[in-house]
Amino acid sequence: MIKYLKPLLIIGAATLIAFVLYILGQVSPLPVEEPAPPDVNVQILIPIDYEVKIKSTGTTTPITQTILTSEVGGEVIYRSKKFSEGSSVIIGEILAKIDDTDLQLQYKNALLQLASAEVQFAVQQAEAEIAQEAWKQVGEGAAQDLMAKKPQLKQAKAALEVAKAQVQSAEKKLNKTEITAPYTGRIKNINIDLGSTILPGQPVGSMYTSNEIEVTLSIKDSDLRFLDIPMDGRKLNPDQKSLVVIKSLYKGEMQEWSGNLERVDGVIDPMTRMIKLIANFKNNFIEDTKPILPIGLFVEAEVSGKRLIDVFMIPNTALTPNGELLVVNQDNTLEIRKVKIITKMKDHIIVKKEMKAGERVVVSKLSIATNGMLVNPRYQ
Q1: Under a CB-based contact definition with an 8 Å cutoff, are residues 275 and 246 in contact?
Q2: Considering only CA atoms, which of 112, 77, 109, 107 is closest in space to residue 95?
Q3: For the chain, give me the number of helices (H) and strands (E)?
Q4: What would the pLDDT profile of 293-318 be if each residue is shown by its tens digit?
Q5: Which CATH number fits domain 39-50+309-379: 3.40.50.2300, 2.40.420.20, 3.40.50.2000, 3.40.50.12280?
Q6: 255, 357, 370: which is closest to 312 by C-alpha?
Q7: What is the 8-class DSSP label of residue 37?
């Protein structure tokens, strides 16, 4: 019995399996959903006019610094209270005096020598005239030089000129016993005190101008294209003097001063490719309500450059790692576009030629971006 049932069971199982496979074959597979296009933030490009700002840093320095020296030596018998570090002085103000006793004696001796030379010259001149008259009485023709006392007169005249020069020299030295301010400014340091003895040419202190300040700014040589300035070191014409604004934390507050670009150094550093600009700032001690710009202050500077016409300002976030932009076409597909950046700021870039007004640029990050890729633009 079992012998006959076994084949029947095999046939039945095979029939069941065939039926199940038939039923499964009639069931439709589940549809595969297409992934939704990724959302992207876009910016519509609008042309603008943009004035380039070139950033740099520097330290304020005086336009003129002078080491004060004494042309004569001697004991310091007077030192002005203003001849102190940080004091303001005006041009011609007496800062110190040197004992002039010996120089007074030299001056008086020079006057004495001058008087003697004048007398000697007058005597020789008179004798020469007498000799000329005597020759006319007894001689014929022109008198010889020696007979006319011309050599003696010439010698007396030369001695007179030397005596005059010695008086001028002694008088000049006497006047140099007063050390005066060569211009209006401030005292930087002093090297003498009352009673000290100095030698001719010895530095007694230093001072600087305080009404005009310079700041040297280093910029990339590529930024020169944004400045209309000559490269030969000449001072700029008024229409070439770009505005320079400097800022610094001073007296507990962020202060700002405005000046002008004065000239450019013609030497480019071969290592850094940087070039130096010199900006000028004026201190108005009477009318200006702003704090006086001090010497030695570290400042951040912004130089106004050329105005660029019909350019586009785009956030830095729009740049791909390869420095390209993603443009969303009318059909919402991506186009990867190479661009030339005119200038780059902290948060934005400026481009022009490769872009058109009204185009949409992706300003959000995409992990994957390919040409023709479908996206869902969202406007900022």
Answers
A1: no
A2: 77
A3: 3, 21
A4: 999 999 999 999 999 999 999 999 99
A5: 2.40.420.20
A6: 357
A7: P
pLDDT of residue 283: 85
The CATH homologous superfamily to which domain 54-63+209-305 belongs is Efflux pump adaptor protein, beta barrel domain (2.40.30.170)
pTM of the model: 0.69
DSSP bridge pairs for 55: 302
| Angle at CA of residue 144, ends 142 and 150, nearest 5° | 110
Which residues share a beta bridge with 94?
A: 180
231's CB contacts (< 8 A; 6+ apart) are 224, 264, 266
Spatial distance between the Cα atoms of 216 and 275, rounded to a whole number of angstroms:
10
CB 342 within 8 A of CB 54: no
Residue with tokens 């380039």: 52
The answer to whether 153 and 125 are in contact (CB under 8 A) is yes
pLDDT 10s digits, 201-228: 999 999 999 889 999 999 998 898 998 8
Topology of domain 70-207 in CATH is OB fold (Dihydrolipoamide Acetyltransferase, E2P) (2.40.50)
Count of Cβ atoms closer than 10 Å to residue 13 Cβ: 10
> Is there a contact between 61 and 295 (Cβ–Cβ < 8 Å)?
yes
Residue 50: left (phi > 0), alpha (psi -120 to 50), or beta?
beta
Tokens of 147: 């007979």
Q: How far apart are CA 194 and CA 185, in angstroms?
A: 22
